[in-house]
Design a protein that fits this description.
This protein has two domains: 48 residues, Arc Repressor Mutant, subunit A (Orthogonal Bundle); 142 residues, Tetracycline Repressor, domain 2. α4 packs antiparallel against α5. The longest helix has 28 residues. It contains nine helices and no strands. It starts with 9 loop residues before the first helix and ends in a 19-residue tail after the last helix. The protein is globular. The chain has 216 residues and is an all-alpha fold.
Length: 216
């Protein structure tokens, strides 16, 4: 007896495929996101998945956009809950870092190395605006590009952390478990982002780095 074919709208099928691909990405990285594995995860044939996305490369590009949409929604919630007075910079930095550690950092690096370029821009504009408004005088008299550069530097660091963070920490003399532990690096970014933007005491930050120990 054959199993009845499940009929889905194209939008529903694409969403299920991307959700399955996202799970594989989080579990095994980019190498785990294969057409056959994704198709099996949604009870679809390889040809059926190809109908919706074409090649694996196109699927990976769609997955990156899928993740970007999710992080955009999440960041808007973070802006509303964390980037108000008193600011919880730790919550914001942790949210951004956690997203990229779920495989999306590796995915973005792999696609970039393969020659793909994202034509979009401004995903973190709401963050820039919220942080700029938290600066002294609500940011009046401070070039907004100064805030943009700080956010861009943070974004670069957390997006590449999963791939290169331990390498760069070893290059600076951190060895063993200290080089693999990414949390102190995230705390460092939180503390120093507060100092760079002059947003006040980053007291909510936990761990072995505090504002008093940040480099002057």
């Amino acid at each position: 007896m054959t199993t009845p074919r499940v009929r889905r709208t194209p939008e529903e099928a694409r969403r299920l495929i991307l959700d399955a691909a996202e799970r594989l990405l989080a579990e095994g990285g980019v190498a785990a996101v294969h057409v056959r594995a994704v198709a099996a995860g949604v009870g679809m044939t390889d040809a059926g998945l190809g109908y919706h996305f074409g090649t694996r490369d196109r699927l990976l590009e769609a997955l990156l956009h899928h993740g970007g949409t999710k992080v955009g929604t999440g960041l808007q919630q973070v802006v509303e809950s964390c980037l108000v007075q008193p600011a919880d910079l730790g919550g914001f930095v942790e949210t951004l870092a956690t997203f990229y550690r779920q495989g999306y950092g590796e995915l973005a690096i792999a696609l970039h190395a393969a020659g793909w370029r994202d034509p979009g821009s401004g995903m973190l504009n709401p963050v820039v605006e919220a942080l700029h408004a938290l600066r002294p005088g609500n940011g009046a008299g401070i070039p907004v590009d100064d805030t943009r550069l700080a956010v861009a530097a943070l974004h670069h660091a957390v997006a590449t952390e999963s791939a290169y963070g331990s390498v760069f920490r070893r290059s600076a003399g951190l060895t063993g478990p200290d080089s693999e532990d990414w949390q102190p690096q995230i705390r460092w970014w939180t503390v120093n982002l507060a100092r760079i933007l002059d947003i006040g005491d980053p007291a909510p930050v936990a761990g072995n780095l505090s504002a008093s120990r940040a480099p002057g």
